TrEMBL record:
Belongs to the nicotinamide ribonucleoside (NR) uptake permease (TC 4.B.1) family. It holds the Pfam family NMN_transporter. This is Nicotinamide mononucleotide transporter family protein. The keyword Coiled coil does not apply. InterPro entries: NMN_transpt_PnuC. The chain crosses the membrane at residues 16-34, 46-79, 104-124, 136-162, 174-193. It comes from Streptomyces olindensis. Its main location: membrane.
């Protein structure tokens, strides 16, 4: 990973690392594949996590640990989408809005998880430079990926909330390319949200008896 951790170029005074750039480009591709509901989103997310793990390992242990968890959740997402493949009318997974109980459970898990991880980061300062925002992004990413694995439209809302903190945090920590990519994530999230929203509404719309399919 030494070559990947070397500097690729300087952009607006920020030093861009190869690992930061390549890992985040894979992450961007994974989000685009998720929008298209392609099962390949999960292997690409796994690879992005692996590359970013190498970028963070040794000096940002908390961020490296986050990427390890991301890789595990990517494996879970692959398994879930393999099971649900073909449920949609176009042969992909079917998407839906979460129930109120599922929303409450995810919100509670996100809140409790953020507090727990932030306290862990504060207890071991070497794990993170910014315990609370880093914990927020860490837990928010896991919640978003879980919702994606379950085909929930709320996946996109979770990513928007992560973006709100992810952009300034990455710039502050010197990962400028990650910050730029998070801005592009925001645009992709809005398009993906619209697509999944419309698909979930179409799937929920009852078909009148005798109407053409």
């Amino acid at each position: 990973m030494n070559a990947l951790n070397s500097e690729a170029f300087v952009l607006f005074g920020q030093h861009i690392l190869w690992s930061d750039m390549v890992g985040n480009l894979f992450g961007l591709a994974a989000l685009a594949l998720g929008w298209r509901r392609s099962i390949w989103t999960w292997p690409v997310q796994f690879l992005a996590g692996l590359i970013l793990f190498g970028a963070f390992f040794g000096h940002l242990t908390g961020s490296a640990g986050k990427q390890a968890v991301v890789m595990l959740v990517a494996l879970y997402g692959w398994w879930q989408w393999q099971r649900g493949k073909g449920q949609g009318e176009d042969g992909h997974i079917a998407v839906r809005f979460a129930t109120w109980r599922e929303r409450a459970a995810m919100a509670a898990a996100a809140a409790a998880g953020t507090v727990a991880v932030a306290l862990l980061f504060k207890a071991y300062p070497t794990l993170s430079w910014d315990p609370w925002p880093d914990a927020y992004i860490f837990v928010g990413t896991i919640v978003a990926m879980y919702a994606q694995a379950r085909g929930m439209v709320e996946f996109w809302f979770a990513w928007l909330l992560v973006d709100l903190v992810g952009v300034p945090l990455n710039f502050a920590n010197g990962y400028a390319f990650s910050g730029f990519v998070y801005v592009i994530y925001g645009a992709l999230v809005l398009w993906g949200l619209r697509d999944w929203w419309l698909r979930s509404r179409a799937a929920a719309r009852p078909t009148l008896e005798g109407a053409p399919a």
